[in-house]
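SEVERITY: medium
COMPONENT: batch folding queue
REPORTER: lab tech (J.R.)

DESCRIPTION
The queue accepted two submissions in a row. Attaching both inputs and their returned structure tokens so the on-call engineer can compare them side by side.

ATTACHMENT 1
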Amino acid sequence: MNKLAWILALPLVICSLGRAQSSAPAPTPPDSGQQERMFFPRDMFWGWGQFDLAPPHNEIDPGICAGNAGQYGGVNAPCSMFARYMLSGMLEVRPFGRGELRRFMVFGAPSFLFGKTVPQTLYTWSPDAIGIEHSWGVGIYIAKGFEFRVTQHFLFDRLGARDTNLGPADQGNNGPWGRYASVGVRKYFGTRRW
């Protein structure tokens, strides 16, 4: 078997092992007298949203401009993409309401960055749009709070007038973590049930 086939088969194997070892009954919907729909159940969306404010001298660095950007123009440096504000979130969608497909989900996690700052040179409260850092993926709930996930993280997408080369301090659209794909296992804690 090639590596891709193993990666795709791994969640099914783990799911089977978890089901064979688990003696606990599967969770039931809150209204046990009413059967949940097969497609697009009522509880198919889960997520969170967050707003962050970075104080002066602690700006969010998306990795677009070099740390010494101030040397290339001082307060007028063209590469001023260090963020003051960040709006981020996560949305998980579980489109199936019954059976083994209920374990499947897709997710997206964008982060929107805003601001105009050059470290040690220019500190403003400007809400200028910088760009979007985003990733998406798929997951399968295994058992006992474990979930198998495949994630694709994309490059940083610049917004507005900053969607051009901003001089010698511009490092390109690599973003804080660059572009990558990963395979992982997540463990949930607490009282969250599927």
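ATTACHMENT 2
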Amino acid sequence: MNVRIIAGEHGGRIIDAPGRSSTHAMSERARNAIFNSIGSEVEGATVLDLFAGSGSLALEALSRGADSATLIEKDRIAAKIIQKNIVMLGVEEKAKVIKATVFNWLQTTEAGPFDIIFADPPYHDTQFSTIAQAFRLLKPGALMVLSHPGKGEVPSKTGVVVVDNRSYGNMNLTFYRRDA
């Protein structure tokens, strides 16, 4: 399966994506909507991509001027594909893949804080309690974008507010901002 980088330095380049049921590539339409709404915040940002899958969110951010990206992916094959994409795009100095579950990584990491966090968990296992733990890695005023199915309950935490909700068919995007 292939995914296209939409814009920026690597705009139009095709990256590989795992064609597995354990990962789902976010549609180009949804990725474009995310990046159109966060706009200039990407330039110079430190990015965290939880449940990275193909790495398309972090790689799109790097293409649009993010300084660095950390990608967390537990699936061994998906992590190898992400690493291959990083090398193909020549962004090895800016991107780091960590093969771990998001839950385990959050328990032990000293990383962060981040300007932008993308969380696109598997739709059959949204892991909202794990995602709520990631809010602590946001810089004051920073943004998290959560992709999830349906309009149900989403994680919340004191000091982090929902600033936008958008639907794209069966997928919803919730945008959070940490209090400054």
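NOTES FROM REPORTER
The longest helix spans residues 76-89.
No errors were logged for either attachment.
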